[in-house]
Design brief:
L-amino peptidase D-ALA esterase/amidase, alpha+beta
Amino acid sequence: MTHDHMALDSITDIAGITVGHWTDLDAATGCTVVLCPPAGAVGGVDVRGGAPGTRETDLLRPGMLAERAHAVLLTGGSSFGLDAAAGVMRYLEEQGVGMPFGKSFIPLVAGAVVFDLNVGSDRVRPDAEAGYRAAKAAKGGMVEQGSVGVGTGCTVAKAGGLERCLKGGVGTACERGPDGLLVGAIAAVNAGGEVVDPERGRVVAGPRADTPGAFLDSIELMRAARSEGPTPGENTTNAVVATNARLTKEQVNRLASVSQDGFARAIRPAHTMSDGDTVFALATGEVPLATWRRGHLLEALAARAVERAVLRAVLCATGLAGVPSAQEWAEQAMP
């Protein structure tokens, strides 16, 4: 199979993976749906944060009956936003997608939430209709990034409080290996920690200092007791990693686990008690892994894709609801 669209550098470079957003700019919330090919994809999950809001994660673990997932929902609205999954299920059922039971289909839709109730409206949350619309809008090709879908109400760098935070968002990236091997990621970045560009070793989004364009150091803020750090439960980075590799359920779960390294490299701190950091992994099975070394490479590439997706989420974001983006903050420093 050819992948002439590889230049998109997106999770949709994986054949059969599509992405749809539902966005409410007025309320600063939204949701994003990742749809698998109709037959589903072998699924796995790794929940690393101490304050997760998740759905159907148990069935993705090794040893459970279901091998495949049909969609993953990344949503705002905190736990209320999990209602959106019902709409995703309804859409897939209409398409005849799911585990067959008699004359019915039961779509397996996993999901995870970010807390965005402290930005925009805390009364509007993604619901079943929002999930349905996001699933219906899912398509291949270019994926809109930044302050859209689940990224709409996301914020980052909250060690100095919300008054010093910057805009988060949703971002995607894809890495290529030999023999057509691909692994892509999409990340919803609502981190309490600051976001770092690991390649250049510089902070791209930290707590805003009093001088335009400058950042405070999150860990130093907490060390000096100028801050107790981000409020528990109000921060989370969630991602979906997809590959065209042929993997067992155990291998997909391992891929989800290793992919969390992408969070650790691009966000500091990550995986804290006040985060819900979760990674879902999906394998469509087109490309066999010829050797165990290819498995090592796949894991390395997956973490790299997550890292780059996190960075893109922040760099593509635009200011909303009084929270400036990292780019807008940097521009304020220019003469």
